[in-house]
Amino acid sequence: MLPSGEKISVVMPAYNEEAGIGGVIESFVALGYIDEIVVVDNNSTDSTARIAAKLGARVVVEPRRGYGSACIRALNEAMTDIVVLVESEGTFDAADLGILLTHLQYADVVSGSRIHSRCNKPGADMTWYKILGNRALGALATLLYGNKYMLDDIGSSYVVARKEIVDKVKEKLRVTDSSFSAELYIGLIGSGASIKQVPISYGPRIG
Length: 207
Ligand SMILES: Nc1nc2c(ncn2[C@@H]2O[C@H](COP(=O)(O)OP(=O)(O)O)[C@@H](O)[C@H]2O)c(=O)[nH]1
Ligand SMILES: [Mg+2]
Hints:
The chain has a seven-stranded mixed sheet, with helices on both faces. The relative contact order is 0.20. It has helices spanning 21-29, 48-54, 67-77, 97-102, 128-145, 163-169, 180-190, and strands at 8-14, 36-41, 58-61, 82-85, 109-113, 159-162, 195-199. It has seven helices and seven strands; from the N terminus they run E-H-E-H-E-H-E-H-E-H-E-H-H-E. By secondary structure, the protein is α/β, with parallel strands linked by helices. Residues 87, 89, 91, 205 line the site of magnesium ion.
């Protein structure tokens, strides 16, 4: 069940993703229910920004380097009722957004879990030790911070949340590098949000 009447933004950080970003944007546009796509260009030196703009995305430039900096900017740019944070290198599927949105009736935040190896495509960079690490840290964060559901992939960067929840946490986010996702989940729980993770497919990056 998709939320009816609510507007949805898809926001994505991008640093030199000219190989994959076009396909990613097209796949979200093809869903037919996305109101805005925002690309946070982290000073790419390739055609990332040009490709994104040509496909109708709103492109903003984030001068501070790092995945976390770009994500914080992305969360600040989203103005719609529902915010979808995803990556621009083709590892996640737009087709999985429907299932994430469906679960939004059970939690304030829903994210895709990459630990279910049966869902992962050949070549996906989810080795057993990444699965183990994400599961262990997810479980630890759940126990320490008290989420309603067990987190099993604390590194997942495919996250769906209502804007009011994002607004509560975004000023507190400080991590500028690739460990941003863990800070986001812990910050969300700390703000009183419930987070549910559901299995999604995960593939190799493009480019
Ligand atoms: N690594 C990195 N990624 C960035 C940066 N700024 C934006 N990104 C984007 O953030 C996402 C994460 O990077 P990626 O290489 O896929 O890392 P991984 O998902 O942890 O394997 C990609 O969509 C990048 O284009 C940055 O400064 N460094
Ligand atoms: Mg990635």
